[in-house]
């Protein structure tokens, strides 16, 4: 059975509904520090299952299905700016002050997080498998230019090809088989059910280039990447860590792009240590 958060609700944000998990709906905290988890593309908040379960014991954790993903509404078109404005609105509705917020973004969510952090006084920033710029590749060209009937059954529905393709693309050859099995249990039905237009949202990243402005990110930053990540290779995270003043870099052995599933204990321990250090 796919994992679900222990509670969830919907917020009306800029004309659409977003599914939100807020641990403060169930738990009480003396510390106002709030970790806001931003998933990848085409991910959903449940991709943070292992981080939610552990980190919410100490800090308020908010995760939401970003516009177009998970169980949130799926407009026909999106812009990158939509994701920044949505995040600002979610924080406002949930009463999260920027100075209490630690943004934790994976992949596309990392790109949103680092752009949002630009010039803002956030408490902290954690980037997991993030990228300086978007590189589409052959699959994206097919999705953007050909009719969905030709590519959707082959690329986004469970079959022998997708199982092998996802395993090779998103996971390290050294990651335990159970990690991939859990990812498929949580996401296979969801991904296969996404409307074709959602897979074309990546067009919103076409002009994204963070390299000229990463130095404007002034909050404490931790950069995490799997050593075997082929989606957002180690070189991308190394560049991000060099460009953001004072950023720390952690390369996780035996992990690929979905290090959240492959090495959750290492990721969680790194985030815990980082957030603890923000209060010293």
Could you give a quick summary of the protein structure above?
The protein is α/β, with parallel strands linked by helices and 280 residues long. Helices cover 39% and strands 16% of the residues.
| Number of contiguous helices | 11
Class from secondary-structure proportions: alpha/beta
| Domains (count) | 1
Q: Determine Rg (CA atoms, Å).
A: 18 Å
Proportion of β residues?
Answer: 15-25%
- Assigned CATH architecture: 3-Layer(aba) Sandwich
CATH fold category name:
Rossmann fold
H/E series, N to C?
A: EEEHEHEHEHHHHHEHEHH
CATH class: Alpha Beta
In the sheet with the most strands, the strands line up as 1-2-4-3-5-6-7-8
Description of the structure:
The chain is of the alpha/beta class. The chain has one domain (9-278): Rossmann fold, CATH 3.40.50. It is 39% helix and 16% strand. It has 11 helices and 8 strands. The chain has helices at residues 49-55, 80-93, 108-117, 137-145, 148-155, 160-170, 177-192, 196-199, 234-243, 259-262, 264-278, and strands spanning 9-13, 16-22, 34-38, 60-64, 101-106, 124-128, 221-226, 248-252. The chain has an 8-stranded mixed sheet, with helices on both faces. Strand 7, helix 9 (234-243) and strand 8 (248-252) form a beta-alpha-beta unit. Helix 1 crosses helix 11 and helix 2 packs across helix 3 (108-117). It is globular, with a radius of gyration of 18 Å. The mean pLDDT is 96.
């Amino acid at each position: 059975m796919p994992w679900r958060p222990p509670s969830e609700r919907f917020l009306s944000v800029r004309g659409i509904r977003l599914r939100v998990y807020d641990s403060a709906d169930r738990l009480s905290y003396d510390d106002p520090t709030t970790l806001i988890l931003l998933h990848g593309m085409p991910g959903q908040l449940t991709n943070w299952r292992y981080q939610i379960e552990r980190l919410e014991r100490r800090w308020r954790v908010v995760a939401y299905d970003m516009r177009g993903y998970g169980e949130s509404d799926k407009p026909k078109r999106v812009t990158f700016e939509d994701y920044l404005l949505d995040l600002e609105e979610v924080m406002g509705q949930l009463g999260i002050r920027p100075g209490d917020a630690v943004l934790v973004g994976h992949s596309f969510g990392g790109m949103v997080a680092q752009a949002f952090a630009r010039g803002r006084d956030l408490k902290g920033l954690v980037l997991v498998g993030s990228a300086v710029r978007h590189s589409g590749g052959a699959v994206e060209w097919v999705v953007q230019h050909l009719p969905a009937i030709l590519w959707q059954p082959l690329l986004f529905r469970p079959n022998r090809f997708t199982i092998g393709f996802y395993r090779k693309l998103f996971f390290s050859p050294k990651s335990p088989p159970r990690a991939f099995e859990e990812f498929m249990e949580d996401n296979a039905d969801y991904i296969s059910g996404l409307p074709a237009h959602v897979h074309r949202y990546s067009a919103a990243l076409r002009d994204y280039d963070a390299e000229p402005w990463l130095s404007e990110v002034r909050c404490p930053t931790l950069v995490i990447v799997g050593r075997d990540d082929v989606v957002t290779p180690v070189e991308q995270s190394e560049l991000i860590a060099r460009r953001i003043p004072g950023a720390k870099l952690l390369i996780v052995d035996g992990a690929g792009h979905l290090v959240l599933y492959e090495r959750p204990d290492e990721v969680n321990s790194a985030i815990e240590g980082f957030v603890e250090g923000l209060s010293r």
